[in-house]
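Input structure tokens:
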């Protein structure tokens, strides 16, 4: 593991002092008052190489400017039924916070279908969640806990793992590449739960191909992972698919419980997290009116090494179980984010 020294940070900071003003403005939205910690994140993603990190940062900041990422939270997905459809087909949400104050991001990797909207809408929604996390949730957690909190924890539910459409792979590859190149080292740990046998078999073949820092972040937990997860989070923050009530509520995005109240399904648009996020984008749109419709964000080119790894992973999956499980592994960022 590379140790990022103060001298390395100083060298990168000197290079960043000379960037153009538009890049400096968007960098402020990235670092949220913590520029040094942000430089360290990018340095880790490039193994401490200052030159490579500088290029990565410039590429990322230019991507933000060219795609108007600073204003993406002012572009709500309309109508609301379309946003609900996206939530019902890309199962992701925030279930709460860890005991250390890190947001818990829950992902329904096995049951996401990505069949209710275009690729552009799914990518737009994902980037909005990233920006809301970085600009709203993490600064709020930092203030609440009295220390800098700049990362999250992800819990991936593998229930119903049967994704095979090439379109799914396209969406997940786009999302994974965007995260890797523009939101590096934002996840402290990945917890895999409800993993079927085929996932476990594939994981044994895939794990040696991943970078060391990624392998250290991933833990495959037995069953629903409830007992292990309760060591790092309170019961109220446990994702619904971890059988918090012992009833096996599943991963689907049902909107309400039978008694008419909003359930604890953090994937649902009716969950507090998605309500807050969606209302925030609508409020921002009133302040900074933007043209409606989907946001067409340029997809960065994946790193050649990542393409090679992805092809190797897909080949291993086909040997074991056709093409049904490759999408789930794309949820785990190949280089670690």
């Amino acid at each position: 593991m590379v140790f990022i020294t103060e001298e390395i940070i100083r060298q990168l900071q000197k290079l960043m002092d000379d960037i153009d003003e538009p890049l400096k403005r968007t960098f402020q939205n990235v670092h949220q008052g913590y520029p040094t910690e942000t430089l360290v994140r990018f340095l880790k993603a490039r193994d401490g190489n200052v030159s490579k990190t500088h290029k990565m940062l410039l590429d990322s900041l230019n991507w933000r400017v060219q795609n108007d990422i600073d204003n993406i939270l002012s572009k709500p997905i309309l109508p609301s039924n379309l946003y609900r459809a996206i939530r019902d087909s890309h199962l992701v949400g925030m279930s709460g916070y860890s005991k250390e104050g890190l947001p818990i991001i829950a992902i329904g990797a096995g049951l996401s279908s990505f069949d209710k909207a275009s690729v552009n809408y799914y990518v737009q929604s994902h980037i909005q969640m990233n920006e809301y996390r970085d600009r709203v949730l993490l600064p709020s957690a930092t203030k609440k806990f009295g220390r800098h909190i700049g990362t999250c924890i992800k819990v991936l539910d593998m229930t119903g793992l049967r994704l095979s459409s090439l379109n799914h792979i396209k969406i997940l590859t786009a999302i994974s590449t965007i995260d890797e190149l523009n939101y590096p080292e934002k996840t402290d740990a990945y917890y895999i739960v409800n993993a079927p046998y085929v996932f476990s078999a594939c994981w044994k073949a895939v794990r040696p191909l991943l970078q060391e820092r990624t392998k250290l972040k991933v833990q495959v937990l037995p069953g629903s992972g409830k007992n292990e997860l309760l060591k790092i989070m309170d019961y109220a923050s446990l994702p619904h698919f971890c059988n918090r009530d012992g009833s096996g509520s599943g991963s689907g995005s049902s909107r309400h419980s039978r008694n008419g109240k909003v359930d604890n399904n953090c994937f649902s648009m009716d969950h507090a997290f998605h309500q807050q996020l969606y209302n925030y984008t609508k409020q921002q749109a009133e302040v900074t009116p933007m043209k409606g419709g989907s946001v067409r964000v340029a997809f960065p080119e994946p790193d050649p090494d990542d393409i090679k790894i992805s092809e190797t992973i897909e080949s291993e999956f086909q040997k074991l179980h056709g093409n049904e499980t490759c999408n789930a592994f794309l949820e785990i960022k190949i280089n670690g984010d």
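Residues 244-250, 252-262 have pLDDT under 50 and may be disordered. The longest helix spans residues 119-145.
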